[in-house]
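Journal club prep — side note

Before the paper discussion, L.F. wants everyone to see what a predicted structure for a comparable chain looks like in token form. Sequence:
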Amino acid sequence: MLIWSTMPEEFIFEGMDNATYNWIEAEVQGVKMLVEPSADQPGYAKVIRLLCPKPASYMRAEFAPGQTVCLFQQ
């Protein structure tokens, strides 16, 4: 990663190593993904990234990063 900035790197990366995330691995409709559970809607989560090796899974709009998915089978 390259960052071109006049600011010292101590200011840019300050607190980066202390970040915590509430991400979990889940499998939705046979596709393994990393999601962030929703605090407002129990049983739903926001897609962070796909962990599936199948290229067709990445073409599905409902699994795009930022989309909300149901964690339970319907």
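L.F.'s comment for the group: The beta strands are 24-28, 31-37, 44-50, 68-70. Keep this in mind when we get to the figures.
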